[in-house]
Amino acid sequence: EIVLTQSPATLSLSPGERATLSCRASQSVRTYLAWYQQKPGQAPRLLIYDASNRATGIPARFSGSGSGTDFTLTISSLEPEDFAVYYCQQRSNWLYTFGQGTKLDIK
Amino acid sequence: QVQLQESGPGLVKPSETLSLTCSVSGGSISSRSYYWSWIRQPAGKGLEWLGRVNVIGSPDYNPSLKSRVTISIDTSKNQFSLKLSSVTAADTAVYYCARMLWVTATTDVFDIWGQGTMVTVSS
């Protein structure tokens, strides 16, 4: 099973700042990596797939990069609605796993 | 637009079987383009994929739960279901159903989710 490790566990920033979230895979997942955003009491929402492709309706301030084992989600300028928990997710051999999440909170 | 809604008991006794249903509205569950998944999330913790099903082929399950989980599809009711047997307190979680969409020829994602339903395992 491929394990995804996200860092940091918590990131405290202010609106307008740039956020950089990391996801590391225990072995290569090529570019089969997605990012989801989850707000309290809500289901996750798809942000990025294939490491760098924004899902439909996702603002351009969200971008993803990486391949192999190291991936990054960047939010270029934080809006108040961006403070949430972010999960990365991969698929390998038809087993889907998620990282443990990074909580982005307001400083 | 497609919407998913989970339903089922919110309280299950230890050693019994947890049973949930996901009703799909606004679209057909019979489309071969989609898989339908169950995912759970214990309070304050991360997400765990339980398994998936579609109208063709056999279901796929998370190996960590494979002996206890069964996912089935009912096209006549536009629903799919989860059964998890021999539950313990560790199975207490919010359970989500989700649609899986092929966004490319090789990549599928969880693009539509239900709101989730809390299931507590307790006597």
Could you name the key traits of this structure?
heterodimer, A: 107 residues, mainly beta, four-stranded antiparallel beta sheet, B: 123 residues, seven-stranded mixed beta sheet, 11 strands, 0% helix
SSE run of chain A: EEEEEEEEEEE
Structural class of chain B: mainly beta
Q: What fraction, in percent, of the residue positions of chain A are helical?
A: under 10%
Shape of chain B: globular
Shape of chain A: globular
State mean pLDDT of chain B (0 to 100 scale): 95
Specify the number of helices of chain A: 0
In terms of per-residue confidence, which ranges of chain A show pLDDT below 50 for 5 or more consecutive residues? none
Residues in helix, % of chain B: under 10%
> What oligomeric assembly is this protein in?
heterodimer
Report on this structure:
The complex is a heterodimer of chains A (107) and B (123). By secondary structure, chain A is mainly β. Chain A has no helices and 11 strands. Chain A has strands spanning 4-7, 10-13, 19-25, 33-38, 45-49, 53-54, 62-67, 70-75, 85-92, 95-98, 102-106. In chain A, the strands form 2 sheets. In chain A, strands 2, 4, 5, 6, 9, 10 and 11 form a 7-stranded mixed β-sheet that branches. In chain A, strands 1-3-8-7 form a 4-stranded antiparallel β-sheet, with no helix packed on it. In chain A, strand 7 (62-67) and strand 8 form a beta hairpin. The N and C termini of chain A lie far apart (35 Å). The model of chain A has no long low-confidence stretch (mean pLDDT 96). Chain B is mainly beta and 123 residues long. In chain B, 0% of the residues lie in helices and 52% in strands. Chain B has strands at residues 3-7, 11-12, 18-25, 34-41, 48-53, 60-61, 69-74, 79-84, 93-102, 108-113, 117-121. In chain B, the strands form 2 sheets. In chain B, strands 2, 4, 5, 6, 9, 10 and 11 form a 7-stranded mixed β-sheet that branches. Chain B has a 4-stranded antiparallel β-sheet with strand order 1-3-8-7, with no helix packed on it. The N and C termini of chain B lie far apart (39 Å).
